[in-house]
Design brief:
Length: 105
């Protein structure tokens, strides 16, 4: 979970100052915290409000095309940002957990 929090924080920080059109299509991390309960500690990630599930919607083909365009822009933005994170971490000579996380994507 720590890796996910780190990546989401870095993406949130980068998207606030980014002009890439795909950055607008990525949910930002608003907050994160840990709660303790009878089943142990649980990490909670709070993001922006997401929309409805796409499977619950009936959409005209023009809307589907627009959603696909936004999806591709978002994936392109993530690809550029994750590569930037990997390069910045490997350039400093440190072995980072981001490298292994990126390969899982």
């Amino acid at each position: 979970m720590v890796n996910e929090i780190c990546i989401l924080q870095r993406l949130s920080d980068a998207s606030s100052a980014c002009l890439h059109p795909g950055s607008a299509h990525i949910l930002s991390l608003v907050d994160h915290f840990t709660i303790s309960g009878p089943n142990g500690a649980h990490h909670v990630l709070a993001t922006e409000i997401a929309g409805p599930r796409l499977s619950d919607l009936v959409m005209p083909s023009a809307v589907v095309r627009e959603l696909c365009r936004q999806l591709v822009e978002g994936v392109d933005y993530l690809h550029q940002q994750v590569l930037r994170m990997v390069v910045s971490n490997t350039d400093s000579g440190e072995r980072s957990s981001l490298v292994s996380v990126c390969y899982r994507w």
